[in-house]
Amino acid sequence: MRELALHILDLLQNSAEAGALRVELGVEEDPENDILRISVGDDGRGMDEATVRRVLDPFYTTRKTRHVGLGLPLLAAAARRCGGKVEIESAPGVGTKVSADFRRSNIDRAPLGDLPQTLAIFLAGHPGLRLVYRHRVGPRDLTFDSDEVSARLGAVGFDHPLVADWVKGYLSEGLLNLQKG
Ligand SMILES: Nc1ncnc2c1ncn2[C@@H]1O[C@H](COP(=O)(O)OP(=O)(O)O)[C@@H](O)[C@H]1O
Ligand SMILES: [Mg+2]
Fold it and tell me: Which of 34, 60, 124, 161 has minimal Cβ neighbours within 10 Å of its Cβ?
């Protein structure tokens, strides 16, 4: 995959498919230690130990719509290519946390891509799900909590085009300020 945002979308979709009501997305960029870490934590149905061991295998999926599950194996391969790794912590009935580390300056490290657009699309497609997104670059950070936005929107949802545009604009500007350093 060319953009990390697509891997992030896949992780968010896994959480939503696992019935999560709350999903925490973390993106931590640590230029000093040359690390980029993506983590997605959820309160979905979770997995037992045996399942966790199997999900990095490209042929494992519990989905009925496709024969192979590729999301996690592709993410693990992308991380490995840039000197990083994927870790999965999960407990049945409690939730799951997937973390992926990348060497930030590695030549094979894909760019983050259009995260604002990706998150706006995800939110539009998952009404009722709370997304808390924290992005840190060195000492600066940005937090977006979809529940805080919903509280101000009232009955209007993230699937409204004006709201989706606002989310995109808000996050794009926030990320631009983060990268200014
Ligand atoms: N956050 C999660 N919570 C519970 N189960 C998960 C989660 N993420 C992945 N899984 C399990 O791992 C399987 C493989 O995931 P993935 O590699 O993304 O492929 P796919 O989503 O196409 O099945 C899923 O079908 C699901 O059973
Ligand atoms: Mg998936």
Answer: 161
User: Three-state SS for 146?
Assistant: helix
Q: Which ligand gives the minimal distance to the CA of 18?
A: 1
Q: What is the pLDDT of residues 73-91, one digit of tens each?
A: 999 999 999 999 999 999 9
Structure tokens at 147: 């529940």
Q: Which domain holds residue 150?
A: 4-180
Give first-to-last CA distance, the chain, whole Å.
Answer: 28
Q: Which of 42, 23, 39, 50 is nearest to 93 (CA)?
A: 42
Q: Residue 38: which of 95, 93, 90, 104 has the closest Cα?
A: 104
Count of helices and strands (H, E) across the chain: 6, 6
**Which CATH number is 173's domain given?**
3.30.565.10
Q: Is 44 touching ligand 1 by the criterion CB < 6 Å?
A: yes
Sheet order of strands, 35-42 included: 86-91, 95-103, 35-42, 22-30, 130-137, 140-145
Would the CB of 12 count as within 6 Å of ligand 1?
no
For residue 85, which phi and psi values (nearest 5 degrees)? -160, 165
Report the number of distinct structural domains present in the chain.
Answer: 1
